[in-house]
UniProtKB/TrEMBL annotation:
The chain crosses the membrane at residues 37-61, 92-113, 119-138, 158-181, 209-230, 242-264, 284-304. Keywords: Membrane, Transmembrane, Transmembrane helix. Residues 336-368 are annotated as: Disordered. The keyword Zinc does not apply. This is Uncharacterized protein. It comes from the Eukaryota. It comes from Penicillium citrinum. The keyword Membrane applies. Residues 336-362 have a biased composition (Low complexity).
Amino acid sequence: MAPRRGSGGFGSSYYGSSSAWSVETSFSLDMYESKSLFIAGFAFDVLFALALIGFLTWACLIRNHNGQKKGLVMAIITWLCDHPLTDRCSSFMITAIVYEVFFLAEAVVTQYYNIDLMLQVFFSDLSVWLIVYVFYNLIHRVVNRLTDAGKPYAAISIVHWVILAILGAISIAAWGIYVAFRVYYVQGSRGNLVDLVDSMNKVDSARVILFWVVSMEIFAWFLFAAVKAGSHRFPSRSQSPIYAIIIGSICWFALCLTNVVIYIRYYIEETTFVPDYLPTATSVLQFIFGVGTLVGILLGCQGWHHIDNSMDKPPMTVQYPYETQYQQYPAYNQQFQPYHGQPQPQYPQQYQQPVQPYELQPSPQPQK
């Protein structure tokens, strides 16, 4: 159900105001049949927000300046603004903690709260795109060690950038339709809402399904890397980061699959009734799979950071190898050979007169 209007009702409140955005809207837990489910979902959202703050601190402590760390930090920040399991086809779905606080506090706000929903959807799409970018960056890092030249194939990078461009374009299109839907909703243009909802369902469903297909590709790449981990570029200690990222990719695949099931089950089929437990279920699944995804990525990035420090640096060499610098002189080595009956080597004579016996030394003569 949509949030209730002010005490004056929709008609008097809307037409009595000079601006549709100034119309007041009240929120209350009475709008939900089960308050316990709402509170449970809110608790999991808060726990996941705290976990994201911890993950953000963890990511900042990893001394890795490659693209995957920068993208991961931005993904966590945008994920803090909103989570990927966001329902955008109905105003009664829980989209963020701020939106949930409105119901707990029974707040009365103006229609400008719709701007908050627009920003939440924007950050939701951006966080999903950045997570895919981080996974692709990690795939390129794996391919670096699989190829003999130490560089990923150009075709792989080109294909991944094309996929990211397609994902970005369809996400922007879906967000633009959602913004138009919210604007028409506030202005009361009910005739245009039906067409917008239909277009939004189609574009958003295509976006969700496409991200799910990409998540399968990501999992397949890391599974392929695990099979090839016995090559010369993958010592045993390099395999543990791959296994950690495989766990993260499985959780990401499960998160995208959950989103696909929700959209196909409840939004593509417009006549299907959305159950009351769906917001709570999405919050619980988001917490489980979201934590698993970020833990896997962070463990992989941290593990490869330690491996790079020990393997990628050139070995230290002694500038002056004292033990070998004189071995090229045979005369020097001959001095330290055992005698064993051989003639003693002749050492260079000192530049001074030989010492004579005492009897042969001249004695001083008395002066006359």
